[in-house]
Design brief:
six-stranded mixed β-sheet; four-stranded antiparallel β-sheet; alpha/beta; binds zinc ion
Length: 396
């Protein structure tokens, strides 16, 4: 397919719906809902998809705020899936810009469907409304509860970024742990020798982790906080809790760092006379495996659409539940700029990122990202050679 030839039509389809699409993104931004409570956001996106003629299952996959929308044209044909995110961060709101990400996928789906109908492209376009990306692992749960990507030739989404439009350079897998030390309370002045200090164990653990970082493989990350360090300065703390995240693109490195970490926990307990527990919490995410072909299709469209493109790679140190999607089907999660050229870079999860996620420039590129995703979908749906290349790259 000639992207230059199809993009004006895709853009025109989306532009005709600019008002409701942008209004939806604004309403979601103004009503931030955290993981699995995205009732308003999911309903708004579902209403749009119904209006565009999609058959919608909602709720879906045993999650009240998840949905699946599909449109099928002709008999047979391939399946292309789009993920839509719409959850906010606790406290700060839409500082990850998922209000724009979800709408970009819905805009893309509408443009693809319209094109398929008009030009007789056979196939299936699916939108998976995936709640709870921020720590909830909605996509991981969706894969556990359904076969949502079983026949997908590819799955894509696009995510806002606070500088320039960039490819998906992958992201780290993550496992999250809580460490609890149990000691013995005693008066910190009157009879400290009777106490066993559970805060000392945390302090030793944080020091051990800090020193270990010098020798740790550079492809891994570990970082933590103390959740509970005691109640009163005149009481030897008898129970303390901390949380650590371990990340890497390589699962085996997460295992390697975890093995050392578990020994440090044991060591800190030994040195203080405490007992220790490590509990894994939240859902582990796999590292993202970006598909080169899908990435380059998106970037080709983004260049034609003048989306402030950069060849630099984005930071690939964060984690996303799209990682699990990208292991279930060929996938890519490229980034679209919501930062007008000349304005300062906004890091993810910052106040500035939140501001850009509700800006005119941000909404313009959200619609362009929709057109770019639609172009990727049509390349995959209409061309068996592209599908074979995408598949071969996935199986590498
Ligand atoms: Zn995000």
């Amino acid at each position: 397919m000639d992207m230059k030839a199809i993009l004006p039509e895709l853009t025109a389809t989306i532009e005709a719906e600019r008002q409701p699409l942008v209004e939806t993104a604004k309403t979601i931004w103004n009503n931030p809902e955290v993981a699995f409570t995205e009732f308003k956001a999911s309903k708004l996106l579902v209403e749009l998809l119904k209006k565009y003629g999609f058959a919608v299952e909602y709720p879906y996959a045993d999650m009240e705020t998840a949905f699946r929308a599909e449109y099928v044209h002709g008999n047979g044909g391939a399946t292309f899936a789009l993920a839509a995110e719409y959850d906010a961060l606790a406290g700060i709101g839409h500082a990850c810009g998922h209000n724009t990400s979800g709408v970009a996928s819905v805009a893309a789906a509408h443009a693809v469907k319209t094109y398929m109908e008009k030009h007789g492209v056979d196939g299936r376009i699916v939108v998976l409304g995936t709640p709870g990306e921020e720590g909830g692992g909605g996509k991981v749960l969706m894969l556990r509860n359904t076969d949502c990507l079983k026949d997908a030739a590819a799955v894509m989404m696009s995510h806002p970024i606070g500088n320039q439009t960039k490819i998906d350079a992958g992201c780290t897998g993550i496992r999250r742990f809580e460490v609890i030390f149990h000691g013995l309370a005693a008066h910190a002045a009157g009879s400290p020798e009777k106490g066993i200090n559970a805060l000392d164990a945390q302090i030793l653990l944080f020091n051990a982790v800090g020193l270990y970082r010098q020798q740790m493989n550079r492809e891994a990350l570990i970082h933590g906080i103390i959740l509970d360090g005691g109640e009163a300065a005149n009481v030897i703390p008898d129970c303390t809790r901390s949380r650590f995240y371990i990340r890497s693109k390589q699962e085996k490195l997460i295992d390697e760092v975890y093995d050392r970490f578990a020994k440090m926990v044991e060591g800190a307990a030994l040195m203080t006379g405490c007992t220790s527990e490590i509990k894994q919490f939240s859902i582990p995410y796999k590292g993202r495996k970006p598909n080169k072909i899908l990435n380059s299709l998106f970037m080709e469209a983004a260049r034609i659409l003048d989306m402030n493109v950069s060849d630099e790679l984005p930071s690939a140190r964060g984690s996303s539940d799209f990682g699990d999607f990208s292991h279930a089907a060929p996938g890519a999660h490229p980034y679209f700029s919501i930062c007008e050229p000349g304005l300062p870079f906004a890091p993810g999860h910052s106040e500035l990122m939140k501001k850009y996620a509700n800006s005119e420039y941000g909404y313009n590129n959200m619609l362009k990202a929709g057109a770019a995703l639609a172009a990727c979908a049509l390349e995959v749906l209409s061309d068996a050679d592209v599908r074979a290349e995408v598949r071969a790259e996935f199986e590498k």
